[in-house]
Design goal:
Layout lengths: L1 H24 L8 H9 L5 E2 L12 E5 L5 E6 L4 E7 L4 E3 L4 E7 L7 E7 L3 E7 L1 H17 L8 H4 L13 E3 L6 E2 L13 E2 H17 L1 H5 L14 H15 L10 E3 L17 E2 L4 H17 L4 H17 L22 H15 L2 H10 L12 H8 L2 H6 L2 H24 L15 H19 L2 H14 L24 H5 L47 H16 L4
Parallel strand pairs: 9-13
Antiparallel strand pairs: 1-2, 2-6, 3-4, 3-7, 5-6, 7-8, 9-10, 11-12, 12-13
Helix pairs in contact: 1-2, 3-18, 5-7, 5-8, 5-18, 7-8, 8-9, 8-10, 9-10, 10-11, 10-12, 14-15, 14-16, 15-16, 15-18
This protein binds ligand G3I and ligand 9MR.
Ligand 9MR binds next to loops.
Length: 574
């Protein structure tokens, strides 16, 4: 088993080397040093699992080594050739979700930026970097991904480079599926994922998470630009990007205040570019989850964009009132609709979240009452569970200003107790990651990044190192410290996805996928017809178009990644 996996990863490294070389000759200089690093790894029969982008100087730095014995290692600083560290790994531990026994090499003491080489014995080694620069580039790519997924706009080569494309989906005549004589204009917004539909609940949590990043790290975003059409205006790029989606979301509110669950074709489009995906688009039924999610997002937007406060707040209040009149209206796909459902029939979390945002924006006691009635235990956020988002807002600076001290303190201790459980999972994990069996669902990398957002927030609240270590442990996980040795973000790392389930990347004729996207990640539901080498939760992943259950990309998985990278860089662990 061990030998098989080793040779598999060797083969994959060679493959990624070939792809990296072709990427370089195609003019992509994003990973200019990939070639030499991949060459070094090629002679490498020991599996090392390491963050392939770079560590910040003062973060905890763990390299996972596949071994059933503790091993001694040396680290050389490549620029000087000097041995800068010698050590022995932790005692190996077995991870059943991956069927691997691994040990940890702790190289945290290396704080000098540069390229290092960690060796075990005479022949086996890996390289790693201490570099804030690459993490900055990674952050910018993960948020730029939203620009590439904009509906209703041509992507100009000046901004999109080789991923330029024509406009698609103007959405100027979207039919109301339940009243086909009526149509609406519902332009702009981001495509949800690898598909071209636009779903309110998923759009909502993504938009909120990006606004959360802005609210928590305003200094980080104030001057930051990543070459989008609005980069020359006075507003931070992050706010311009978010506006693109808020403009669309506003159009999804019906006259009575209720919000259509999604804007969709009846069936998923084939793998063609946006301009060629011309099937009729519809808005479907209104529902409680979409309306409350919309209310929460718009109430937050009223604080983020004070110049548009009235528009956003009145939209939020109308949606909230609709949900009061329709408190239990789940959405299920209409009989002829076959696209993503994002179905949810439990609404206390959406009520708690919307009430929290409305309370923070208006200070009206009625909303506080609603928070008290609906707020449940803290949890990691996801599209179907928004309780954690209520906590993030209530514990933010705005929450601290608005809530009574006693109430704030009790929410804080509940939240930290939950974060403690993630820390424990991380400390007990052979890979030092806060991931348990239940986390390996469709979009497991999104779960990892939402856990990371919770932990980063716990660290912000307490400055307690254990939160920070569990947080960076998860960031390292998606960047390569995982049992497949994948850097799960397109365009970054020696071994990253090339064949994501993303229609544009599949159809554009460009060898490299659109950069900056986090692949869904391993899970063994196997809900597609792809063949998987592994049936284990943490290693069932396939870098192939066929694998939409592990290799699609979405706006809701990238958003907590953007947040986490901003948190990491803003904390200046450097
Ligand atoms: O609700 C059940 C739960 O009761 C059960 O315990 C659990 C066991 O696995 O399954 C739960 O259902 C899961 C559901 O998500 C809710 O979490 C399904 O197994 C799982 O297949 C389903 O996955 C969703 C997938 O769409 C299929 O509907 C993903 O969360 C969701 O991210 C994904 O979203 C798609 C959109 O539909 C379309 N656009 C792309 C996007 C990403 O792939
Ligand atoms: O391509 C679709 C992907 O974007 C969705 O997330 C996924 C959700 O179920 O479904 C994919 O479409 C598949 C469809 O569900 C079944 N037939 C194959 C389609 C992919 O080629």
């Amino acid at each position: 088993m061990t030998t098989k996996i080793k040779s598999f990863s060797k083969l994959a490294v060679s493959l990624s080397l070939i792809l990296a070389i072709s990427a370089c000759s195609g003019g992509n200089n994003m990973n200019s040093s990939v070639t030499s690093e991949a060459l070094q790894s090629e002679s490498d029969p020991v599996a090392f699992y390491v963050n392939q982008t770079g560590f910040l100087p003062h973060q905890q730095k763990h390299i996972v080594i596949r071994s059933s014995q503790p091993v001694t290692f040396d680290v050389i600083h490549t620029a000087t050739g000097k041995t800068v560290l010698q050590g022995t790994t932790s005692a190996p531990a077995y991870w059943d979700l991956a069927d691997q026994t691994v040990a940890i090499a702790d190289v945290s003491s290396l704080v000098e930026p540069g390229l290092y080489r960690l060796s075990v014995g005479a022949e086996d080694y890996t390289t790693f970097r201490v570099s804030a620069e690459r993490l900055n580039a990674l952050h910018d790519a993960t948020i730029k991904a939203y620009y590439y997924n904009r509906a209703g706009i041509a992507l100009d080569p000046a901004f999109a480079g080789k991923w330029h494309r024509e406009a698609g989906h103007p959405d100027t005549k979207v039919i109301n599926l339940n009243q086909p004589e009526q149509s609406i204009v519902s332009a702009k917004g981001w495509y949800d994922a690898g598909d071209y539909n636009k779903y309110i609940v998923n759009s909502g949590i993504s938009t909120y998470t990006l606004m959360r990043a802005y609210l928590d790290f305003p200094g980080f975003y104030a001057e930051r630009r990543w070459n989008i059409p609005e980069s020359t205006n006075q507003q931070p790029d992050l706010l311009d990007e978010i506006s693109w989606n808020l403009d669309w979301m506003l159009t999804m509110q019906d006259k009575d205040g209720g919000v259509f669950h999604k804007l969709t074709t009846l069936n998923f489009a084939p793998a063609v570019m946006p301009a060629q995906a011309n099937a009729q688009r519809y808005v479907v039924s209104k529902g409680t989850a979409a309306s409350l999610n919309f209310a929460a997002v718009m109430a937050t937007a009223a604080r983020v964009y004070p110049q548009h406060k009235n528009t956003y707040l009145s939209a939020a209040e109308k949606a909230w009132q609709w949900a009061q009149r329709n408190p239990a209206k789940p959405y299920t796909n209409e009989a002829n609709v076959n696209t993503g459902e994002y179905g949810d029939s439990s609404f206390t979390d959406e009520f708690a979240w919307a009430a929290s945002e409305l309370y923070l924006t208006t200070g009206e006691p009625g909303y506080l009452n609603q928070i008290e009635q609906n707020l449940g235990a803290p949890a990691t956020p996801g599209w179907s569970d928004t309780m954690g988002l209520a906590y993030l807002s209530l514990l933010s600076e705005q929450g601290q200003k608005t809530l009574s001290g006693q109430r704030y303190d009790s929410l804080r201790s509940g939240f930290l107790e939950y974060a403690d459980s993630l820390v424990k999972t991380s400390q007990d994990s052979p890979f030092r990651i806060a991931m348990s069996a239940r986390d390996f669902v469709w979009g497991s990398n999104g779960v990892a990044m939402n856990h990371a957002m919770v932990l980063a927030s716990a660290y912000r609240l307490t400055s307690q190192e254990s939160y920070r270590h569990a947080f960076t442990g998860l960031v390292d996980y998606v960047l390569g410290k995982n049992p497949l040795g994948y850097s799960y973000i397109t365009g970054f790392g020696q071994r990253s996805p090339h064949f994501i389930h993303h229609r544009q990347s599949q159809a554009d004729g460009v060898a490299e996928p659109v950069p900056g996207w986090l692949a869904g990640g391993p899970q063994n539901g196997h809900q597609d017809n792809c063949h998987y080498e592994s049936s284990l939760p943490a290693t069932s992943y396939k870098d192939n178009w066929c694998s939409y259950s592990t290799n699609e990309v979405t706006i809701n998985w990238n958003a907590p990644l953007v947040y986490s990278l901003a948190a990491l860089l803003e904390q200046k662990i450097q």
